[in-house]
């Protein structure tokens, strides 16, 4: 924890030096001693310290300074650091003014110049003041702070990114906490920059305005470029399948990199509770599973970069991967583990309100914000059931909208049972979203009831959509063979009427999880015919490494 600050202000350089020296020799072990030669400079400094979340214990100002005297400086400074103890340094002639200031201007003490010896005329009184300050001081939050508004899609995107990458941060909703004195001070210290939300404040005093995840990724030390130009194994996608492949590959000596565009964990990382993964009888959250897998992969030396793959080409035995920022790197074996992404719901208003009350997927960061509200979950599969159970912990009421007559045909029985036993959750059958309404954020949902043919318009502030998913594999078009929905074909799927795929020149068939390009493998949800489960993704990622070893043993 950073030491609290003692700040003295005096336009007389000799006096300033002397007071700093005496403060440092007595309090230097527990406090940082700073000085400023002008009250204006000191006010600027205090604003900077506020943005860095530093604590200020004492403000000690000379009374006679040009432009702004000590009393007025301390009154100004009190607006920024109301808890700091305030003291004046005065000459004998100013004693009356100083006594007046104690009574009228909330100044705690005044010291006479010169204060020699300090053991008599300075330290005992300061000990009292600092003791008082310590007793009532609550240390301020020292990590990353994000200022934004709940209904801003950009704020949502940023918070989701930080949460899923396990970067701790403090969220300050500037609308909800507008009357909070600390928030007011922060916004005041930011000045005109406060309009450029979301603002991210870092403990080193730097800030990002209108921040986007890629800027924050760099700042918090998430790598966005590979460390070298070549790897034995490159994995695109850091979901369960990609992470498992990385752990097996790296533990067996392959120099391995994962490229992940959002956050390691993939879809599984959004799951509030995975109950059917072997070895965790009480279940575990997807976030927890992802965190453990990342630590395990890194222990074996896997490099993980925050970036998006946008193209691939072949040069002899090399597979060259292009990233969205235009950079490239190469590998011998490439694994595509890019999973699937949520299908879009096609209803008027949805696109406009996405991130402002309408969310695809779990919205882990949103669950707490829904306290006391009514939440709508759209979809009838396990992911919708898990999300409903999670929201029920905070929300007043959760409606699950399903097209069919019940959940039983689409959701695992254990979840159907949990939903039934949770009074806050109500399943709304034969229901689909016809339209969503709201100016700046979701306010109402029109629900089409297919049994009656009527549309019901209900108030709503949050709606979470879980209506199935599709792969995003256009960046592989023309290189890797895909089915008509974009899933990647592998192994036996590529052999048609006993013929190997077009352009295949090797003397063997494609391996089980290999695509039509030798050395490019596909695992997990992105693969045609895959079972969409954590365990099967993990299994495929692990098994594929065996084929990669066989492939690499023949690569020149
Ligand atoms: C809410 C929810 C709950 C679930 N609950 C369960 C459960 O309880 N039990 C269970 O077995 N299964 C569950 N599933 C399904 C399970 O999570 C998936 O089957 C599994 O995550 C698939 O793993 P994957 O690695 O193949 O793909 P994903 O998990 O989809 O990961 C793919 C990753 O690739 C990244 N990516 C995509 N394109 C690119 C690119 N071009 N460049 C870089 N990165 C890219 C994505 O950002 C993503 O992180 C759940 C799914 C969801 C959404």
Task: Give a summary of the structure in a few sentences.
With 556 residues, the protein is an alpha/beta fold. Helix content is 30%, strand content 23%. The strands form six sheets. Strands 10, 11, 12, 13, 14, 15 and 26 form a seven-stranded mixed β-sheet that branches.
How would you describe this protein?
The chain starts with a strand and ends with a helix. The strands form 6 sheets. Strands 10, 11, 12, 13, 14, 15 and 26 form a 7-stranded mixed β-sheet that branches. 30% of the residues lie in helices and 23% in strands. Helix 2 packs parallel to helix 3 and helix 13 runs parallel beside helix 14. The chain is elongated and about 105 Å long. Strand 1 (5-9), helix 1 (13-27) and strand 2 (32-36) form a beta-alpha-beta unit. With 556 residues, it is α/β, with parallel strands linked by helices. The mean pLDDT is 93. The structure holds flavin-adenine dinucleotide.
């Amino acid at each position: 924890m950073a030491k609290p600050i003692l700040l003295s202000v005096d336009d007389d350089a000799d006096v300033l030096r002397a007071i700093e020296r005496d403060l440092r020799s007595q309090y230097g072990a527990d406090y940082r001693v700073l000085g400023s030669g002008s009250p204006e400079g000191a006010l600027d400094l205090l604003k900077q310290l506020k943005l860095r979340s530093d604590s200020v214990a004492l403000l000690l100002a000379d009374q006679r300074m040009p432009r702004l005297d000590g009393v007025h400086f301390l009154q100004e400074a009190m607006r920024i650091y109301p808890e700091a103890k305030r003291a004046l340094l005065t000459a004998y002639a100013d004693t009356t003014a100083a006594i007046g200031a104690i009574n009228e201007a909330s100044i705690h003490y005044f010291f006479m110049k010169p204060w020699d010896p300090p053991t008599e005329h300075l330290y005992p009184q300061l000990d009292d003041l600092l003791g008082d300050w310590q007793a009532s001081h609550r240390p301020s939050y020292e990590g990353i702070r994000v200022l934004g508004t709940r209904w801003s899609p950009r704020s949502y995107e940023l918070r989701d990114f930080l949460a899923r990458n396990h970067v701790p941060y403090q969220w300050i909703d500037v609308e909800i906490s507008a009357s909070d004195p600390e928030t007011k001070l922060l916004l005041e210290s930011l000045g005109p920059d406060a309009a450029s939300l979301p603002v991210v404040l870092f403990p080193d005093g730097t800030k990002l305005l209108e921040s986007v995840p890629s800027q924050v990724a760099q700042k918090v030390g998430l790598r966005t470029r590979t460390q070298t130009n070549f790897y034995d194994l490159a994995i695109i996608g850091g979901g369960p399948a990609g992470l498992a492949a990385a752990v097996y590959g790296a533990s067996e000596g392959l120099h391995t990199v994962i490229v992940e565009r959002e956050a390691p964990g993939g879809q599984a990382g959004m799951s509030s509770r995975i109950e059917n993964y072997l070895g965790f009888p009480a279940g575990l959250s997807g976030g927890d599973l992802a965190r453990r897998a990342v630590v395990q992969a890194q222990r074996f030396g896997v490099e993980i970069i925050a970036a998006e793959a946008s193209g691939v080409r072949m040069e002899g035995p090399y597979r060259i991967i292009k990233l969205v920022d235009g950079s490239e790197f190469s590998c011998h074996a490439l694994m595509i583990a890019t999973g699937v992404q949520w299908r879009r719901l096609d209803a008027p208003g949805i696109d406009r309100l996405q991130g402002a009350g309408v969310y695809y997927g779990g919205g882990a960061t949103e669950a707490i914000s829904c306290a006391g509200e009514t939440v709508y979950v759209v979809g009838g599969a396990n992911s919708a059931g898990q999300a409903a159970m999670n929201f029920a912990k905070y929300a007043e009421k959760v409606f699950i909208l399903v097209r069919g007559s019940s959940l039983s045909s689409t959701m695992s029985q254990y979840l159907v049972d949990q939903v039934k036993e949770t009074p806050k959750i109500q399943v709304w059958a034969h229901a689909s979203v016809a339209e969503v309404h709201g100016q700046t954020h979701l306010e109402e949902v029109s629900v089409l009831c297919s049994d009656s043919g009527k549309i019901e318009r209900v108030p709503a502030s949050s709606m979470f959509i879980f209506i199935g998913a599709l792969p995003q594999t256009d960046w592989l078009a023309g290189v890797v063979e895909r089915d008509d929905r974009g899933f990647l074909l592998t192994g036996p799927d590529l052999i048609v009427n006993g013929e190997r795929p077009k352009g295949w020149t090797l003397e063997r068939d494609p391996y089980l999880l290999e695509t039509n390009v030798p050395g490019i493998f596909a695992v997990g949800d992105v693969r045609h015919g895959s079972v969409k489960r954590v365990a099967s993704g993990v299994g495929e990622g692990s098994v594929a490494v065996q084929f990669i070893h066989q492939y690499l043993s023949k690569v020149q």
